[in-house]
């Protein structure tokens, strides 16, 4: 029994320090593959991706995803408590409709280290990983990772692959309108398609363009999109 307990403790310690080392390494290197990408291959969607540095991405797409997904990204420490409270109140009033409040940091934690879907276990781990990457990584690295690993269509991961698939160009050359359309698909990229453009993307597109104009002048936003 004591031997089994020692083996268990060693295993736990190895796993604990291994994941911390991996998270630290991801501050500089891109993940070789994620669980979501594995799932895409297994479901027959394939895997199209091409990691690029943040400097190789258009300022328009950086602005668009913050306008669409997380306008307080430069300021918060991983969690947007006001949005979480609003989402809880909305979901209580509308049990058949769900509103999320995940920040870009939380989505990176899920996309890089975890799996899709809900559940208390996944949500708890997501909070843990979000806290750690906010401590270990810079905001620029979190944004860069988000734009490289986020699913942006069936089998399409990251902004470089999305830009090539939808507009036949590199991510650094995306226009404001093109960036807004891709950002509009992010809540459900398999359903909210950019090409052919879905009704939901068209509905969200105009609002994202307005929000881009609203937040663009913020100094903290400017520091991230340059």
Give a description of the structure:
Helix 3 crosses helix 10 and helix 5 packs across helix 7. The protein has a single domain (32-225), classed as Biosynthetic peptidoglycan transglycosylase-like (Penicillin binding protein transpeptidase fold, Orthogonal Bundle). A hairpin with a 2-residue loop joins strand 2 (151-153) and strand 3 (156-157). The N and C termini lie far apart (58 Å). The chain is built from eleven helices and three strands. By secondary structure, the protein is mainly alpha-helical. The chain has a three-stranded mixed sheet, with helices on one face. The model has no long low-confidence stretch (mean pLDDT 91). The chain has helices at 2-25, 35-42, 59-69, 81-93, 104-113, 120-136, 139-149, 159-167, 176-185, 199-215, 219-225, and strands spanning 48-49, 151-153, 156-157. The chain is 61% helix and 3% strand.
Per DSSP, the total helix count is: 11
How many β-strand runs?
3
Low-confidence stretches: none
Order of helices and strands: HHEHHHHHEEHHHH
Q: Bin the strand percentage.
A: under 5%
Tell me the name of the CATH homologous superfamily: Biosynthetic peptidoglycan transglycosylase-like
Find the CATH topology: Penicillin binding protein transpeptidase fold
* Distance between the amino and carboxyl termini: 58 Å
Count of domain modules: 1
What is the percent of helical residues? 55-70%
What number is the mean pLDDT? 91
Name of the CATH class: Mainly Alpha
In the CATH hierarchy, what is the architecture at level 2? Answer: Orthogonal Bundle
Helix/strand/pairing class, anyone? mainly alpha
Provide the spatial order of strands within the biggest beta sheet: 1-3-2
Radius of gyration: 18 Å
Q: Biggest sheet, in brief?
A: 3 strands, mixed
Overall 3D form: globular
């Amino acid at each position: 029994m004591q031997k089994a307990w020692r083996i268990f403790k060693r295993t736990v310690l190895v796993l604990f320090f291994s994941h911390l080392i991996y998270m630290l390494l991801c501050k500089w290197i891109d993940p070789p593959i994620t669980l979501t990408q594995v799932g895409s291959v297994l479901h027959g969607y394939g895997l199209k991706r091409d990691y690029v540095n943040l400097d190789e991405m258009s300022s328009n797409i950086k602005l668009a995803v913050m306008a669409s997904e997380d306008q307080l990204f430069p300021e918060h420490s991983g969690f947007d408590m006001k949005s979480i409270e609003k989402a809880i109140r909305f979901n209580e009033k509308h049990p058949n409709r769900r509103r999320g409040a995940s920040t870009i940091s939380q989505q990176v934690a899920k996309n890089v280290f975890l799996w899709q879907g809900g559940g208390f276990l996944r949500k708890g781990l997501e909070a843990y990983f979000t806290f750690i990457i906010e401590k270990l990584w810079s905001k620029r690295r979190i944004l860069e990772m988000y734009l490289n690993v986020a699913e942006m269509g069936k089998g399409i991961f990251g902004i470089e692959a999305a830009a090539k698939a939808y507009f036949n160009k590199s991510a650094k050359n995306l226009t404001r309108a093109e960036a807004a359309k891709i950002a509009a698909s992010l809540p459900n990229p398999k359903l909210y398609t950019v090409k052919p453009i879905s009704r939901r993307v068209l509905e969200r597109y105009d609002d994202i363009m307005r929000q881009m104009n609203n937040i663009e002048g913020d100094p903290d936003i400017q520091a991230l999109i340059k």
